[in-house]
Amino acid sequence: MIKVDLHMHTGDDPYDGLPYTAVQLIDKAVALHYAAIAITLHMKVFDDERVFDYARDRGLLLIQAVEWRFGGRDVLIYNIPPADAARLKTLADLRAYRRERGDDLLVVAPHPFYPASHCLGRELERNIDLFDAIEVAGMHYRWFDAFNNRARQVASEHGKPVIANSDTHGLWMFGRHYTLVDAVPTVPAIFKAIRQGKVQPVSPPVTLWESLRMFIFDKLLERKAGRVTVSFPAVSRAGR
Q1: Which residues, at least 6 apart from 178, have a Cβ–Cβ distance to it below 8 Å?
Q2: The CATH classification of domain 2-225, taken from the options 3.20.20.80, 3.40.30.10, 3.20.20.140, 3.40.50.300
Q3: Torsion of CA 40, 90, 193, 121, to 10 degrees
Q4: Which of 31, 56, 86, 163 is 20 to 30 Å from 71 by CA-CA measure?
Q5: Domain regions of the chain by residue span
């Protein structure tokens, strides 16, 4: 089993001002023994080849991905180049693109039933054929997990696997919510294992303090941070 997290944001995100870089995220992933991660910026495919090289050199698989929005609703798409993402305007476009790409593409429904306008909600079941897996989100309590329970119910009814991700918006959030996948650390193997349900989602409840930190204190930091660009003081094309 390998440890993966397929939903994370960094300072490169065009919508969130986060005070850490992709390199810092990779360093922490390596320290926590992850085999694969995906940086899923909002409406932007992360494609800095220096970062992919850096992850590879450290023994970590970085999967190209994006959190794309269709009609205001979030969808996670994996193994997609920027030019292809740019031409996807509707879920119908995504459906056609899926037929074109086949098993080379993975599509996941993130936090689908949380009470926010950008979550899929009813659109998940209306378009269930588009999704390979359904995500349970890290924001839940020991005494309340109704939104994830609805996601689990829909997944069970439609024969879809459930995976857990951190949806990291702060380095402190990364490391507790992840999925164990029965696969070798390659894109085809991970995608196949997820589709086959060979996964174990790990998502412990958060505390009230952690939720306050996520939604209040971290949001204040985001406003002050602005965008943090990737820098390589010791690793660069010129030095390779």
Answers
A1: 3, 4, 5, 34, 164, 165, 166, 202
A2: 3.20.20.140
A3: 80
A4: 163
A5: 2-225
pLDDT tens for each residue of 46-95:
999 999 999 999 999 999 999 999 999 999 999 999 999 999 999 999 99
| Residue 190 structure tokens | 């991970």
CA distances from 159 to 101, 127, 129, 132, 151 (A): 22, 14, 11, 10, 12
Which among 168, 140, 206 has a CA at the least distance from the CA of 16? 168
The residues, any chain, with a CB within 8 Å of residue 177's CB and separated by 6 or more, are 5, 138, 164, 165, 166, 167, 202, 203, 204
